[in-house]
């Protein structure tokens, strides 16, 4: 936060399986009030989650400023090197379903405006699906990118549940047959897909 910011209150807000979350009320140096949303997670995975959220939200902000809360900072607590945080602007959640045409138009605009920095599919660091690390390795095709990330999820599931041969048979069929048949056609015979920003949860 800017030097001179006063923290007026901090209270638990929302719910998360993987982080602690809070609403932080502040008074800025110019005496204007400002509310932040804080996430805290522990360990190396928690550090990756906080950095990944900050970097990905910053990237979305650069393309579509009104489409996600403005990120402020991420880092590690000075008093506890095992605790890490992510801080962004606080937004009240609207429980109503957004207007479909307006919302999808803004989503499409984000896809259209975003440009891969190197023409490849991926991201410059690991992002997380909840607390699960995604495979964001740079790849030349959407098929390869999608397959890598789906395989990561299958591997994590197998590791967590010690899945049997039936699971592995289904996994291999999805990765080696379904993904290839469905996605390769999109990038063959002169067709192409523009690498652009994709996202997990969509909130309003």
Describe this structure in words.
It is a single chain. The chain has 2 domains: 6-89, Phosphorylase Kinase, domain 1 (2-Layer Sandwich); 119-187, no CATH class. Helix content is 36%, strand content 23%. It has 4 helices and 7 strands; from the N terminus they run E-E-E-H-E-E-H-E-E-H-H. The strands form 2 sheets. The chain has a 5-stranded antiparallel sheet, with helices on one face. Strands 6-7 form a two-stranded antiparallel sheet. Strand 2 and strand 3 form a beta hairpin. The longest helix is centred in the first third of the chain and has 21 residues, at 43-63. The mean pLDDT is 91.
What key attributes describe this structure?
204 residues, alpha+beta, Phosphorylase Kinase, domain 1, 5-stranded antiparallel sheet, two-stranded antiparallel ribbon, 4 helices
Arithmetic mean of pLDDT: 91
Query: By helix and strand content, what is the structural category?
Result: alpha+beta
Distance between the termini: 25 Å
- Flag low-confidence runs: none
Order of helices and strands: EEEHEEHEEHH
How much is the radius of gyration in Å?
Answer: 20 Å
Which CATH architecture of the largest domain would you pick? 2-Layer Sandwich
How many helix segments? Answer: 4
Percent of residues in helices comes to: 25-40%
**Please, what is the CATH homologous superfamily of the largest domain?**
Phosphorylase Kinase, domain 1
Count of folded domains: 2
Largest sheet properties = 5 strands, antiparallel
| Strand percentage | 15-25%
**How are the strands of the largest sheet arranged?**
1-2-3-5-4
The counted number of beta strands is: 7
